[in-house]
Amino acid sequence: MASEALLNRESATALYMQIADLLRTDIDSGVFATDSKLPAENELTHRFGVSRVTVRQAIAQLLAEGYVVSKQGKGTFVSRQKLLHDLKPMRGFYDALIAQGVEPKTKLLEFTPASASEAVRQAFGATDADCFQLKRLYLVDDEPIALVVSTLPPEASGLTWEQVNRNPIYVLLENVLNMPVTKAEVRIRARSAGASVGHLLGLSAKAPLLVMERESFGNDGVLRERTSFYIRPENYEFSLSVQGPLPVGSSIKNVNGSSPRADKK
Fold it and tell me: 160-178 pLDDT, tens per residue?
């Protein structure tokens, strides 16, 4: 287990970073198992021979990396293994979790007619008909990991609450509504949770979130669905494998309006 003797007080690396590295190694090697509680702050202070401030900085570093989570009034616990969402195969959020051996629970919060902008209605190939909004909460081990908010075309008026509650979006589109999906465009960004989303995910309004925006289309180019996934970032990551060099600079969009400078290295 990590000990004070492993700290190099002559190193240019800050002590809190060294402590974070040692605790991270203990977590990766299984010394601290998933969901187990880290030693208390005073115990770590004694073990490493450092101040409480230094220990708090080390824990804050692990929190930022998603290695641990803080539970108010209970302490700091080792995070669950990250769920990996491979973006290359076109599959839904539910199926991406199932592919990793995780069977999430879902809670349907809303399925109602909803007004949409003219641009969205046109993308759906609709005119004055209402679109439909679907709001669903995903839970793993009874803890919320994502809130999913979808806009569906007017054809969704034929769906029942039971059908929507029981089936993922792609299943509803392809198997129930006979509206095959052949292409999806995905964008990923970060934002703060906000009050309403944070409440549903058990987060503060200022907590960071991963947001995946997805638009799915049929062979005819008509929009089939538009979905926003609000995901707790500490246990979730995305991966993408591509052929050839990846033009990172050209794939980054500055949402504030100015173009980012491409990495020329």
Answer: 999 999 999 999 999 999 9
Q: What is the pLDDT of residue 19?
A: 92
C-alpha distances (whole Å) from 92 to each of 25, 125, 168, 265 are 34, 23, 7, 35
Q: Out of 114-123, 156-165, 256-265, pick the least confident.
A: 256-265
Burial of 124 (0-12, 13-18, 19+ CB in 10 A): buried
Task: Please provide the DSSP assignment of 186-218 as one string.
Answer: EEEEEEE--HHHHHHHT--TT-EEEEEEEEEE-
Residues 87 and 60 in one domain: no
What are the tens digits of pLDDT across the range 184-220?
Answer: 888 888 889 999 999 999 888 888 888 888 899 999 9
Same domain, residue pair 87 and 202: yes
CA-wise closest residue to 45 among 35, 36, 53: 53
Cβ neighbours of 105 (radius 10 Å): 12
Residues 32 and 94 in one domain: no
Does 229 map to a domain? yes
User: Domain holding 161: CATH number?
Assistant: 3.40.1410.10
Q: Indicate whether this model's pTM tops 0.70.
A: no
Distance separating alpha carbons of residues 15 and 9, to the nearest angstrom: 7
Distance of alpha carbon 236 from its chain centroid, rounded? 5
Q: Which domain holds residue 233?
A: 83-240
**Does the residue 247 lie in any domain?**
no
**Residues 176 and 103 placed together within one structural domain of the fold:** yes
Asked whether residue 94 is assigned to any structural domain, the reply reads yes
